């Protein structure tokens, strides 16, 4: 039965990875999306009088921080970060980090994400856009101005240790460690950063996972028949 337990632990990990890969593929065109991966580890248990039992675990997730493709959109309130860093938005659950820079002013003049979360500046305050502003000028560091009048600077923040990032939804993260403004950010105006998912590689991986899962399932069925046959023989 030990072999069945080992295989079941592997099957569980493969199923978890299949879900992650499928989600990556589904978000291949989502602005600012970061691809996820699963980390497999080995759990070894001593078996007195028998060889040790080795089982796989697949619980830890990692997030690719590779730069996504930067595409010029022409959108007046579209922004992308070139290099490291995140935008910060204010949500009911607290401040969150994101690379998705598709924003717009709300009725009060605050720059907000599509769900209404306010975009924060480099001091952690909401970014304000005057309602009568026909157009805005944006510096390469995210500085905003209207007709020569400085409005502020879109905040770009870095996390001291990327392992402290906790994914919330598809494009936002909270962080358990220190978050600081980037000293010299590079912000592109009228650009958006696409998903960093390599769709072809992800589809290929999905096929590999499916084949591995089917192989494990076939082994479990064979093992089941072997045990069933042995029990029948003992009962005769």
Structural commentary:
β11 (about 145) and β12 (about 150-155) form a beta hairpin. With about 240 residues, the protein is of the alpha+beta class. The mean pLDDT is about 85. The two termini are about 20 Å apart. Helix content is about 25%, strand content about 35%. It contains two helices and 18 strands. The chain has helices at about 1-25, 200-235, and strands at about 35-45, 50-65, 70, 80, 85-90, 95-100, 105, 110, 120, 135-140, 145, 150-155, 155-160, 165-170, 170-175, 180, 185-190, 190-195.
Quick take:
With 236 residues, this protein is an alpha+beta fold.
> Which structural class do the helices and strands define?
alpha+beta
Q: What percentage of the residues does DSSP assign to strands (E)?
A: 25-35%
Q: List the quaternary state of the chains.
A: single chain
Shape descriptor: elongated
Rg over C-alpha atoms, rounded to the nearest angstrom: 25 Å
Helix content: 25-40%
Low-confidence stretches: none
Q: Largest sheet, order of strands side by side?
A: 9-5-6-15-14
């Amino acid at each position: 039965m030990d072999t069945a337990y080992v295989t079941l632990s592997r099957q569980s990990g493969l199923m978890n990875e299949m879900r992650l890969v499928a989600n990556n593929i589904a978000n291949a065109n989502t602005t600012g999306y970061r691809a996820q991966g699963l980390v497999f580890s080995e759990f070894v248990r001593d078996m007195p009088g028998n060889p040790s039992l080795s089982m796989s675990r697949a619980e830890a997730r990692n997030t690719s921080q590779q730069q996504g493709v930067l595409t010029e959109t022409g959108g007046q309130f579209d922004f992308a970060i070139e290099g490291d860093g995140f935008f910060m938005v204010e949500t009911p659950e607290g401040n969150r980090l994101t690379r998705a820079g598709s924003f717009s002013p709300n009725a009060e003049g605050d720059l907000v994400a599509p769900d209404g979360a306010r975009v924060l500046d480099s001091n952690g305050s909401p970014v304000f856009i005057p309602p009568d502003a026909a157009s805005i000028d944006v510096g390469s560091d995210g500085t905003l101005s209207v007709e020569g009048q400085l409005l502020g600077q879109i905040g770009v923040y870095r996390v001291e240790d990327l392992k402290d990032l906790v994914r919330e939804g598809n494009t936002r993260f909270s962080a358990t460690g220190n978050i600081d403004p980037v000293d010299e950010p590079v912000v592109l105006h009228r650009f958006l950063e696409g998903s960093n998912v390599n769709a072809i590689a992800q589809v290929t991986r999905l096929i590999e996972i499916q084949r591995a899962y089917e192989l494990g399932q076939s082994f479990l069925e064979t093992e089941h028949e072997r045990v069933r046959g042995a029990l029948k023989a003992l009962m005769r």
